[in-house]
TrEMBL record:
Residues 15-76, 133-191, 209-281 form the Prenyltransferase alpha-alpha toroid domain. Gene3D superfamilies: 1.50.10.20. It comes from Thermococcus siculi. The keyword Repeat applies. Pfam families: Prenyltrans. One of its GO terms (molecular function) is catalytic activity. The keyword Transit peptide does not apply. This is Prenyltransferase alpha-alpha toroid domain-containing protein.
């Protein structure tokens, strides 16, 4: 635990991060990135769990957080949020609890019935979740809890994902870093071997900038494509061209409250950005 904190602490203010997270923990076991609100939610709680896990730290009063995440798995909950809750439970050592609620997932996500997230609801990236995003989150969650899809389910999911193939990547109107990573992760998690995509490399910014973009040869960089492109390069066994510059980019995103924003311009901190910033630094420092 200490070594991870010390390692990342050479580049970003990790103590500030933990203070930021802890101040936003509530008595129900959930978290809310706006500290003055009691509106705890699955998204913030999931990323609080992910941050603790990344840093090798125990979640305080984790039994309360397990209870909070389990209660969040309801028929009216969006499938992305349900997947987050399942993965969060797995990280907290409650895979058995997660497995008890798979029936709710299959009412919304059933590839054999052509259901790729009924009632998509909220999204991580785009306001309303795309079916590809929902597929990514469900596959990631099922992998975390140890649920294995049947061969028929895998084939159905693969066929669905391939509908988003767009040139050298994956996307709706054009390939993006986010959707290309989500597609490649999903295919690999199911046991397929898609060809490497040059998309992530084409979105890398060195020189004065650092970071990655959603689409090639554009500006400015943002945190979410930097996170997904970093993951994409790792997935393909590739290394970033200028890791020091990417760490510099991330360092500029930390706000005075300890959390991170998404761009070099002014912006508020949230848990999602904070986890992604730490994850990028954790990945990059291997190459320094």
């Amino acid at each position: 635990m200490g070594s991870k904190l010390a390692e990342l602490g050479r580049y970003v203010n990790v103590n500030g991060v933990m203070d930021y997270i802890e101040k936003r923990r509530h008595d129900d076991g959930g978290y809310c990135f706006v500290s003055v609100l009691n509106d705890t939610n699955v998204n913030d709680t999931y990323y609080a769990v992910k941050i603790h896990d990344l840093l090798g730290m125990e979640v305080p009063e984790k039994e309360k957080t397990v209870e909070f995440l389990e209660k969040a798995i309801q028929p009216q909950t969006a499938v992305v949020a349900i997947a987050m809750a399942l993965e969060g439970l797995a990280i907290l050592g409650a895979k058995d609890v997660a497995m008890e609620h798979l029936d709710i997932v299959f009412t919304k996500y059933n590839p054999l019935e052509g259901k790729f997230a009924v009632g998509l609801g909220g999204s991580e990236e785009f306001g309303t979740a795309t079916p590809l995003e929902a597929t990514y989150w469900v596959v990631k969650a099922f992998k975390a809890i140890g649920y294995k899809f049947s061969e028929e389910e895998k084939d159905a999911i693969r066929g669905f994902v391939m509908k988003f193939r767009n040139g050298n990547g994956y996307g709706v109107k054009q390939p993006t870093s986010t959707m290309t990573y989500q597609a490649l992760f999903t295919l690999r998690a199911l046991g397929y071997k898609p060809p490497k995509s040059p998309h992530f490399r084409n979105c890398e910014l060195c020189g004065d900038w650092g970071g990655f973009t959603e689409v090639p040869y554009s500006l400015p960089p943002y945190l979410e494509p930097t996170f997904y492109a970093t993951r994409g390069l790792e997935l393909q066994g590739e290394t970033p061209t200028c890791p020091r510059r990417h760490v510099w980019f991330i360092r500029q995103l930390q706000n005075s409250n300890g959390g991170f924003r998404r761009s070099l311009e002014l912006g508020i901190s949230n848990f999602q950005n904070t986890y992604r910033a730490l994850a990028v630094v954790d990945s990059m420092i291997k190459y320094l």
